[in-house]
Amino acid sequence: MNPAEVEDIEVRLFLEAIHRRYGYDLRDYAPASIRRRVLLALAKSGHAHLGQLQHEVLTCPPFFAHLLEDLTVRVSEMFRDPSFYRAFRTQVVPVLRTYPLLKIWHTGCATGEEVYGTAIVLTEEGLYERAQIYATDLSPQALAQAKEGTYSSEVVKTFTENYQRGGGTGNFAAYYTEAYGGVAMNEALRRNVSFFQHNLVSDHAFGEMHVIFCRNVLIYFGNDLRERVLNTLSQSLCAGGFLCLGASERLGRLGESLAFSDFISEERIYRHEN
Ligand SMILES: C[S@@+](CC[C@H](N)C(=O)[O-])C[C@H]1O[C@@H](n2cnc3c(N)ncnc32)[C@H](O)[C@@H]1O
After folding, report:
1. Which of 32, 48, 71 is the C-terminal boundary of a domain?
2. Dist. CA 1 → ligand 1 center (Å)
3. Is residue 47 included in any domain, yes or no?
4. 215 Cβ below 6 A of ligand 1
5. Is residue 200 assigned to a domain?
6. Which of 45, 131, 132, 237 has the largest CB neighbor count within 10 A?
7. Boundary residue ending a domain (71, 95, 112)
8. In terms of Cα–Cα distance, which of 43, 48, 7, 13 is closest to 27?
9. pLDDT tens, 212-266?
């Protein structure tokens, strides 16, 4: 057996240990990506081998809490892929306007950028008051940041450009105040948002959503897990509900079996038929 194969076994055992000790199931994440992140976490820890890292993970919950952040990718951006938001405003919003109440689920919301983006779109389209937004993620730390809604000044320029390119109709600066060397998103944008932990791998579907955003999350999952999670998402949508995936993700052959049809295919927006 060559060293890479041995390392592969060690990584699997490490993920198994995390699952048994803490219930976080990373075993079916895309192998190359999770392996890379485990090895980066090992290098950062200063331990000589995965056995040592595993021992610390098993015996020290606060250490694991930090490590979990390194095992998942949390990169996000407000109005990420602006053409998506432009399409959402012009083609999805008119359908949403026909519903008296809106339930919107942001899965894998990371540090909340997308959630505030949606809240801004709904505000400008006059739909915020009828919306309830559920913002969930696996990571407690990411959720804490999302709830706070503070971002560094360096990213605001990008957020502003994205907002304008995504069809923003107002002044982005009106949605935040300068705070602590960064910006704090307005409290009003959070009024109808519930933030809570939800694990797409192990937690249940929750139902009758009109829109689910699951952008840039499935790319980190292996094929079987991806299929299981898409099943959960399809069970969580009402008839005619919208599923929004990230730019590099597509439903492929699963679309038909899960009763999704393309709504705006180039933006990965799908509609659930039943
Ligand atoms: C790259 S971020 C995507 C953020 C945002 N959706 C976007 O597109 O900008 C991926 C997020 O998925 C979350 N995640 C990973 N595995 C998850 C799981 N099993 N259940 C829920 N969230 C998960 C990570 O914690 C991370 O915050």
Report:
1. 71
2. 35
3. yes
4. yes
5. yes
6. 237
7. 71
8. 13
9. 999 999 999 999 999 999 999 999 999 999 999 999 898 988 899 999 999 999 9
pLDDT tens per residue, range 107-128: 999 999 999 999 999 999 999 9
Q: How is residue 201 written in tokens?
A: 């791998």
Q: Is 192 in the pocket of ligand 1 (CB under 6 A)?
A: no
Which residue out of 15, 134, 138, 204 has the highest number of ligand 1 atoms within 8 Å of its CB and is therefore the one to mutate?
138
- Residue 184: CB within 6 Å of ligand 1? no
3-state secondary structure of 183: strand
Residue 76 lies in a domain: no
Contact residues for 87 (Cβ-Cβ < 8 A; gap 6+): 264, 267, 269
Tell me, yes or no, whether 46 and 96 share the same domain. no
| Whether residue 205 is found in the same domain as residue 118 | yes
Read off the pLDDT of each residue in 42-62 and give the average, rounded to a whole number.
96
Ligand 1 touching residue 199 (CB < 6 A): yes
Report the separation in Å between the CA atom of 217 and the middle of ligand 1, taken as the mean of its atom positions: 5
Q: 256 and 146 share a domain?
A: yes
Q: Which residue has the tokens 């041995």?
A: 6
What is the spatial distance between Cα 175 and Cα 119, in angstroms, rounded to a whole number?
10
Looking at this protein, which amino acid is placed at residue 48?
A
Is the Cβ atom of 141 under 6 angstroms away from ligand 1? no
Give this prediction's pTM: 0.95
DSSP 228: H
Of 112, 105, 107, 18, give the one whose Cα is nearest residue 63.
18
Please give the pLDDT value at position 245. Answer: 97
pLDDT for 23-49, tens place per residue? 999 999 999 999 999 999 999 999 999
Is the pLDDT confidence value at 162 over 80?
yes
The verdict on the CB of residue 145 being under 6 Å from ligand 1 is no
CA nearest ligand 1 atom 2, residue = 74
67 lines ligand 1 (CB under 6 A): no
* Domain count of the fold of the chain: 2
| 197 and 242 inside one domain | yes
Domain that holds residue 200: 82-272
Residues 62, 87 share a domain: no
Query: What percent of the chain is modeled with pLDDT above 70?
Result: 100
Q: Is the pLDDT assigned to residue 207 strictly greater than 90?
A: no
